Amino acid sequence: xxxxxxxxxxxxxxxxxxxxxxxxxxxxxxxxxxxxxxxxxxxxxxxxxxxxxxxxxxxxxxxxxxxxxxxxxxxxxxxxxxxxxxxxxxxxxxxxxxxxxxxxxxxxxxxxxxxxxxxxxxxxxxxxxxxxxxxxxxxxxxxxxxxxxxxxxxxxxxxxxxxxxxxxxxxxxxxxxxxxxxxxxx
Length: 186
What we know:
The structure is a single chain. The chain has seven helices and six strands; from the N terminus they run αβαββαββαααβα. By secondary structure, it is of the alpha+beta class. It has one domain. The strands form two sheets. It has a three-stranded antiparallel sheet with strand order 1-5-4. α2 (about 30-50) crosses α4 (about 115-125) and α2 (about 30-50) packs parallel to α5 (about 135-140).
């Protein structure tokens, strides 16, 4: 039951970002930008409350955090949804994956008011003046857990490193945030 709730929340999140990013920027949502929106949603709420709204596992890559399971599912064409379709654009020697909403009507019923405010805030901050994904990437480089993982890669030249959610909250002076995190991560 919890897994089904979790998957529905991820699917609703992807659908929301695909619809709103296109509506506000006039451009399709590509995989890298989707990941950056998800990263910022997860880590900003975690930093503010001590509670990860998605509880995903992340790896630190050059362009910021990447949600491991979603990255794997999208890369292997295993991600299935009735709300969005995945299309591949070939740009030169590269393939770019874009997320296209099947319908413009999304539901945020699964999110709290606080989470919905954060979703709209991210769209307002990044989609309205969107030119490319560089501003989103730069914003994820401000995530403390990414910075710790990226700068402490085992071999120094590794392409990725596991990130730890706890790294985002352990130095917080707010004991409520630390207690919230400890309670949810038991």
